[in-house]
## 1
Amino acid sequence: MMRCFILLVFFCITCVANVHGGTPVEVPDTMAERVKACIICHGAEDKVGRDAYYPRIAGKPQGYLFNQLRNFRDARRYYQPMAILLENMTDEYLLEIAQYFSALQLPYPAPEQIHMQPEEIKLAERLIYSGNPEKNIPACNACHGDILMGVEPAIPGLLGLSRAYITAQLGGWRNGGIMRGQTADCMSEIAQQLTDEEANAIAKWLASQFVSGKPSPFSVLSPELAHRCSQNILENGGAK
């Protein structure tokens, strides 16, 4: 759990050692330099650690990133290394970080090679493109955009993520492990309606798709879904 935090500490110690030993090093005062500690874990691809998943954050909607940073800082979403790293940062600085990573365009990794049975593919595509009205489950693309690359300013894309990360996130939403001490929101309500079979099929299908396109504008959301997920949308960027 502490692997990335230990690497971060080592990175900082190395920087201090370089300053105090030998020729001074000129480091440009840019956001790219300031967030190098973030890149240790959050690079161009997802990373799977022994007890944690480190997602790619480049290119995600700014409002979504800003809200996640605030949640970690304020202990609404808990992961100790993130909480320690962000504890003294202001909203203004967190917004700058979110803006930087949102605008950062890095190549996506190739899709995972995952074998799926025909019935698994059919199940995943039905949920992703049609949902399950009987269980009040909207289609994934109704919230996350027609091409599943997210919706500005608040809703993240679902492509370019590893199967392990998607599975972990769905599991976290289903058991309440993502947001602690918070009232239920639309994502937790939806995820709790999924069976293990459905969640696994969705994770497999999404991780095996090629990435193409950009987040959709907020106007693509239906009024019904915008109202249902209004708490997330308002917190994630102030869209109204």
## 2
Amino acid sequence: MREDAAIREDAAIREDAAIREDAAMCGLQIGNFWMSWLMRITRLTAPLALLLTSGLAAQNPPASAAITARLDTPQARVIVATLQPRTPSIARNGHVTDRVLIYLDNGVMTRKEGDQSTRIEFRRGDVRWRPASGAYIAENISDHPIRILEVDLKGPPAGPAPVSKLDPVAVDGKHYKVEFENEHVRVLRIHYEPREKGQTHEHILNRVVLYLNDQTAAKADDVRMAGAATHSEENASDQPADRIAVELK
């Protein structure tokens, strides 16, 4: 009887082991099935995901130019346009206003109008006149972003520009020099050495003033609107002071 019981117990143990082994094999087969299924799904969906990503990138290309408003007056709107490297900025409708451009960074860009392409090299503080134009493509071909201060003129000149006997260029040519002038604007480049004081002079026209470096009452790249005034100026700091003034006729 004891031998029969031992035999039955041994058979039960063997049967249980067999069941466990079958279960393990079944689990392994199920695991392999799911692993194979997941790998197959991955192979099928990867190209689709890549296609969707490419499509989204095409729909949302990197921004070519960021526009920051600085001033808005009855005579002019002043903005800063920041162009990213190697990203064309397409102006399909062109630019309907005349404007003064002041470059805030060193750089190189191209401007294409129709079949004509122009390469433009500039340094910080360079100034250019840009008349209204048709469609064009501008591209920053530098390896870093560039910023351009744009003074967009809202209309034609009010009339002949008045002249003062105390015009700053006439009475203080050491510190005030004409960068360029046309029927719309006069652009002045202003430079004071440390601790220098200028002559009393008069401003008749409204003007947009850009500060090119830190000064006693302003920071580099500050932009302000100034009106008629008679005064003298002094650079009270130990550093040179440089500004650009765009007089609006």
